[in-house]
Amino acid sequence: MRRTMLGTISALAIAAGTLVAAAPAQAAPALRFHSTQYDSPGKDTRSNTSLNAEWIALVNTGSTAVNLSGWKIIDKSKTYTIGNVTIAGKGGKVYLHTGKGTNSKTHLYWGSGNYVWNNTGDTATLRTKAGKTHDTCKWGNKSGRTRIAC
After folding, report:
1. Centroid of chain to Cα 14
2. Residues of the signal sequence (predicted)?
3. How would you write 111-135 as a 3-class SS string?
4. Cα-flanking dihedrals φ and ψ of residue 148, to 5°?
5. What is the domain partition of the chain in residue ranges?
6. CA–CA separation, 89 and 136 (whole Å)
7. Alpha-helix runs per DSSP H in 22-150
8. Which helix (H) or strand (E) holds 79?
9. How far apart are the first and last CA of the chain?
10. What is the mean pLDDT of each run of 10 residues along the chain (150 residues)?
11. Which of 113, 97, 106, 18 lies closest to 59, judged by CA?
C-alpha cells in the first residue's frame, strides 16, 4: 500500500509539472497600426509644421493598457524606438509625428528633419521589444490620397 501511495504521489507530481509546462503563453496585445498620413498636406517644405503633419498612429483595441517601452516602428531606412509610453486600452491611440516636438502620452516625435514615409508607397513595421514583427501597414500610390486606414 505504501508503494502504491508513493507511486500515486509521484504520478500527481509529474502531472502537475506537465500542467505547468503546458500553460498557454501570454496573449499578444491587441495593438495595431490604425492609420497614417504619409503625405503632409500642402507643399513639402520640410518645415517642422509640415514634417509633423506626416504621422502614423497605433491603436489598442484590447481592454488592457500596453507599455510600449522598447517597441519599434520601422521604415526601410529609419527606426523609431518608443520610450516609456503606455497606450490606453479600449481604443487608446498614440501618434508618431515625423518632425520635432515634446512627447506626450498620445503624441510622439521622431525628430527627423526629412520626411520618413514615401508618398508613392511604403511599409511601416511594428516590432515588439523582443524584435518580433507584430503588425505592418503597407500602402501604394493612392491616386491623390494622403491618408489611409491601416
Report:
1. 39
2. 1-27
3. CCCCCCCCCCEEEEEEECCCCCEEE
4. -140, 160
5. 31-149
6. 20
7. 48-52
8. strand 79-81
9. 66
10. 41 41 61 95 94 98 96 96 96 98 97 95 96 96 80
11. 106
Whole-model pTM: value is: 0.81
Report the alpha-carbon distance of residue 55 to residue 36 in Å, rounded: 6
Check residue 26 and give its pLDDT: 62
Extract the C-alpha cell encoding 118: 514615401
At 17 the three-state DSSP class reads helix
The residue written with cell numbers 491601416 in the block is: 150
Query: What is the structure's pLDDT at 143?
Result: 64
The residue written with cell numbers 497606450 in the block is 87
SS3 148: strand
Partnered with residue 65 across adjacent β-strands are: none
Domain 31-149: which CATH number of 3.40.50.10330, 2.60.40.1260, 2.60.40.200, 3.30.43.10? 2.60.40.1260
